[in-house]
Amino acid sequence: MAPAVLVEQLQKRYGSAEAVKNVSFQVEPGEIFGLLGPNGAGKTTTLRCICTLTAPDAGRVEVSGISALEQPKMARQLLGYIAQEVALDKVLTGRELLQLQAALYHLPKAAIAPRIESITERLGLTPWADQKTGTYSGGLKKRLDLAAGLLHEPAVLVLDEPTVGLDIESRRVIWDFLRQLRDRGTTVLLTSHYLEEIDALADRVAIIDRGQVIAEGTPSALKDRVGGDRITLKIREFTSLEEAEQAKSLAAALPFVQDVIINNAQGNSLNLVVASQSDAISALQQALKAANLPIFGIAQARPSLDDVYLSATGQTLLDAEMAAASQRDPKVERKQSMR
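RE: above sequence
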């Protein structure tokens, strides 16, 4: 059976900016596959190339064995695409908008009403279906947008940041619905910069940084690959690089410490990978005390997807988000320097 989505050596430039650099991954039929990365990592460009909305400069894209580059019309018939930005006509009711969408999909007239009834009920939209979309909350608008993308019952549903900016209840509704779609056989490909979203939903994940895939696998396998527990250590609220380097040398010499990274973006805090043992913090405290180094804060936890990103790039996803935001707004850079 052909992969639901196949991407090989995908490349896309915008002027001098290389948005996507040789991205490769494949999505198996009937799974939820997540693309995780900060804003500006190349996730949206990758999705737009898959959905035939953007022409790549190089590479191969297939949907269920059909080339999205050579046979875009055939590929589109298999795809449902939900963009990050919701675009609804606020003078139409939810039902009217779905009827318009059904007509654009050329659905058989006899199938339209029952299909709209089914999708609105499954997404909890029935009480609002005959109200104008201009009165909808952000969560209802996103659910309606999702309903519109599913009317033609696509084999592959592609979502770009499906829950960004939504409240907890709306996110829960969409998460549950996406799991139901997967259980019914629909393939789901989504992007997100929310760690908990990818961890909760994705059967497999590819982590993207600066237009490249830096890690791929199941969330549990990626976290196991990092190995050991994580310890976050701050010597002072604002630690000098000299003291951070001194603490790094002390920590690296301890037998249970596997790796140490100085996180400059977070006040020269230290991120340690340690063998799982209950006395790791105690032993680290003793070593720092013997060197007359204080401890402002210390915590130990199991690995997360953020640790996978940190191990591969030397910064957390939050740091990458802040760095990208500072390029767009100098005020953010000043805030980041005060952290």
